[in-house]
Write a structure and sequence with these properties.
The protein is an alpha/beta fold. The chain contains 13 helices and 11 strands. A 7-stranded parallel beta sheet has the order 3-2-1-4-5-6-10, with helices on both faces.
């Protein structure tokens, strides 16, 4: 299968390219090309803006593209040209979406007050009605243009994608080597300091899903190569843990005897800001059962190896800083 990955040289995009090449796909990595890009071995790199529909259509035609994986689905305005080019090429659009489309996220971010869904979220559960989640958050994700975050929202992009042959894949937070958002950097720092791991008690009891980068990429590759269209899947493992449980497990796996100690709010311990800024009555845990039944388990890398690699990456980033 001939597959283009838009946003194909970043953290997730490059990992998807490696997974697809490993499965024998012909892969074209597309990115802005503002810096020297090294394509994944066995893939091709082409520089293009995602907002240039004409250039994208020409690339898709030249490489006989059958599926387009869109990793950088940030705003509807920047995605419409790509949707148009994909439709013009007669290709299938594979959207990398996220857990933040669900109504539970709207509650978590205090954008709205939906009914709390305490169990893992399923694909048919309600999505947010309130839009543009980062407009109301005082702390923004690192590494993304503030102007883009102002109009960031995957909910309207999902709706637009469904007008054409498409596959929507919703992912939780992704961790592992290359993670510039530092999903577990706070925890690795606490472990380097020797512990204990003092976590705000409110956040310690809050549950969230994570997926390892190589597992996420392999899952996207399997779903894309299947040719399935018109469906939505959560890409998630079966694990359900609170942040306190994640922290304790992470410590044990990496050989630390440090213990998690829930701290009161006035201690301003680790993850204090998250507890202050959000409504932690709303968990963010995904149910990956539909994906597993269709494609097999998401988790392919042994968790101990995944967590060990994540800790090594965090420690390297800290040492290089």
């Amino acid at each position: 299968m001939n597959i283009a990955i838009v946003g194909g040289t970043g953290f997730l995009g490059a990992a998807i390219a490696r997974a697809l090449v490993g499965q024998g796909a012909n892969v074209v990595q597309i990115a802005r090309g503002q810096m020297t890009q090294t394509p994944v071995t066995g893939a091709k790199f082409v520089a293009a803006e995602r907002t240039d529909s004409t250039a994208l259509a020409a690339i898709f035609a030249a490489h006989h593209i059958e599926a387009v994986i869109d990793v950088m689905t940030l705003t509807l305005a920047s995605t419409k040209p790509l949707l148009e080019a994909t439709a013009r090429a007669g290709a299938r659009y594979v959207m990398i979406s996220a857990v933040d489309v669900y109504a539970n996220y709207g509650g978590l971010a205090r954008m709205e007050k939906p009914a709390i869904i305490s169990r893992p979220l399923r694909e048919d559960d309600p999505v947010r009605k309130a839009l543009f989640p980062y407009r109301t958050l005082p702390t923004k994700p690192a590494g993304i243009d503030p102007e883009i975050l102002e109009n960031y929202d995957k909910v309207p992009i999902e709706a637009a994608a469904r007008a054409n042959p498409s596959l929507i894949l919703r992912l939780p937070a992704i961790y592992g080597p290359g993670d510039r958002q530092g999903r577990f950097a706070w925890l690795s720092a606490a472990l380097r300091a020797g512990g204990p791991i003092n976590i705000d008690a409110r956040t310690a009891d809050w549950a969230q899903s994570f997926v390892y980068i190589d597992d996420a990429a392999a899952a996207v590759a399997r779903a894309t190569l299947s040719g399935i269209t018109g469906q939505t899947f959560n890409i998630a493992t079966w694990r359900r843990r609170t942040m306190g449980e994640w922290a304790q497990h992470f410590a044990q796996i990496t050989g630390s005897s440090a213990q998690v100690i829930p701290a009161p709010a006035d201690a301003k311990a680790l993850l204090f800001e998250r507890a202050e800024m959000t409504d932690l009555a709303y968990p963010l845990v995904l149910d990956g059962g539909r994906f597993a039944r269709q494609f097999g388990a998401v988790e392919q890398v042994e968790e101990a190896a995944a967590i060990g690699a994540a800790r090594a990456w965090d420690d390297k980033v800290a040492a290089d800083a």
